[in-house]
Write a structure and sequence with these properties.
This protein is mostly helical. The chain has one domain. The chain has 13 helices and no strands. The longest helix has 27 residues.
């Protein structure tokens, strides 16, 4: 669930070019997708020790510390609009991650990510202005309707949180390029992670129990921060410098399927046949929207 954040600084540019030349761009995206979803499964496995809110907070703190050390964003001399954009981006990132973790705590990860993916799909369709893209909306709607016929493991709060995550993802897509123009490279992500971590602190500590200080929780929280934020953001930024946006969109459409497989392997979280069909409908709709969007030379990411 990561989008291009804009141009990089000259110093970052050389380092990124050297790294990007060693691995095919497509594989960078695929590795990033698996990293995000494996991180999500690890996080869910800790929900019996810490609340989803506390887990999101630990993830944001981990990514913020790592990114601030690596990126060292320039903070002095920033305009008021830069800070407003950075804060808005950070709060959007916070609510998006918090709501999808709340959804994951209540419904299967594969279903939660499938519903969440309606956000970027909606942006792709709304910004395309092509009548035929309504077919992708219809296909995605069919997938969501199928989920309604498979109540196993589903509940209204979980679905509601997943929809909120999708809405935040759509807002995130709109803010991401603007943030990238104001905060070069990963500077915007570093600042946003700090904003999100600070804003969530009182709520996370209020819910934190004795599990917060367990070494296993702290170590895995750092791993989740790296796998769900630092690694995929960096790899996808590298990939977007070398592949067309439409190709990137198609690859990202694999996220719901990867999420379901990761949860199945790591959490023994199995979906029903109808739920797999529903997931496939949304994935195909996302691929279709990204493919035709890519032909126009643009991309919602």
């Amino acid at each position: 669930m990561v989008w291009h954040s804009g141009p990089v600084s000259p110093e970052q540019d050389n380092r990124l070019d050297r790294l990007a030349d060693r691995v095919p761009a497509v594989w960078l995206v695929i590795i990033g997708i698996f990293s995000v979803q494996i991180g999500a499964s690890i996080a869910k496995d800790l929900f019996h020790l810490v609340s989803p809110t506390t887990m999101v907070w630990l993830r944001l703190i981990s990514s913020a510390v790592v990114l601030m050390i690596i990126v060292r964003p320039r903070l002095a001399g920033r305009s008021r609009s830069d800070w407003l954009l950075g804060i808005g981006f950070g709060l959007t990132l916070l609510v998006m991650n918090w709501s999808i973790y709340q959804a994951m705590a209540r419904i299967p990860i594969g279903v939660a990510v499938t519903i969440e993916f309606l956000g970027p799909l909606a942006v792709a369709v709304v910004t395309s202005h092509r009548a035929r893209d309504l077919l992708w909306v219809l296909l995605a709607g069919t997938g969501v309707a199928l989920l309604g016929f498979t109540p196993e493991g589903l509940n209204l709060p979980g679905v509601g949180f997943a929809l909120l995550a999708g809405l935040c993802w759509a807002v995130y897509i709109v803010l991401s390029p603007r943030t990238g123009r104001s905060w070069a490279g990963l500077n915007g992500l570093a600042v946003a992670s700090v904003v999100g971590a600070v804003a969530l602190t009182p709520f996370a500590l209020a819910e934190a129990g004795p599990g917060l200080l367990q070494p296993r929780v702290l170590i895995l929280a750092v791993a989740v921060g790296l796998m769900s934020s630092v690694i995929p953001y960096s790899l996808e930024m590298l990939a977007l410098r070398r592949i067309p946006p439409g190709v990137f969109g198609i690859l990202m459409s694999l996220e719901p399927g990867v999420a379901a497989v990761a949860a199945m392997l790591l959490l023994a979280e199995f979906l029903t046949v109808v739920q797999w069909i529903a997931l496939a409908c949304v994935v195909i709709a996302s691929i279709g929207a990204a493919r035709f969007r890519g032909r126009k030379g643009g991309d919602p990411r």
